[in-house]
Write a structure and sequence with these properties.
By secondary structure, the protein is of the alpha/beta class. Helix content is about 35%, strand content about 20%.
């Protein structure tokens, strides 16, 4: 099995199962999180109170973006940053472009407001599946 895996990888391109060389396209999901450990929960809605709290990119998502850009530089292809959040999350995606992402997609709708962690994790994946261009 190892020998078969080695033959699939060329120095500049990753080969698909059909044997044709393809570009590596990387999708990185980014999420804004509170830039503090002192968060408060609204007792009526059980959602985070975000007023007055600076939002930052989840640090682990930043690492993923950096690695995606490194892979693009090494193998070719493109990096697409995807996030779910309010319109203010567009600034985070602009930063992703400045770091080296080629495209950015923001999934934003009032229906997403107050989403729990499962919905927050599932939504970007569904957005990627629905958008055939990614």
């Amino acid at each position: 099995m190892k020998a078969a895996m080695k033959s699939c990888i060329t120095p500049s391109r990753l080969n698909c199962a059909n044997g044709k060389a393809t570009r590596m396209n990387v999708i990185v999901c980014l999420k804004q999180v509170p830039g503090t450990t002192e968060v408060k929960i609204d007792p009526n809605t059980n959602t985070l109170i975000r007023q007055g709290i600076k939002a930052i990119v989840n640090p682990f998502d930043s690492y993923a973006l950096e690695e995606g850009v490194r892979l693009k530089e090494k193998h070719g292809g493109k990096v697409t940053a995807v996030s779910m959040g309010p319109p203010q999350a567009a600034d985070m995606l602009k930063d992703a472009i400045s770091v080296g992402a080629d495209e950015a997609v923001l999934l934003s709708d009032m229906a997403f407001a107050g989403s729990d962690t499962l919905a927050t994790a599932a939504c970007p994946g569904q957005g990627c599946r629905k958008n055939k261009k990614l």
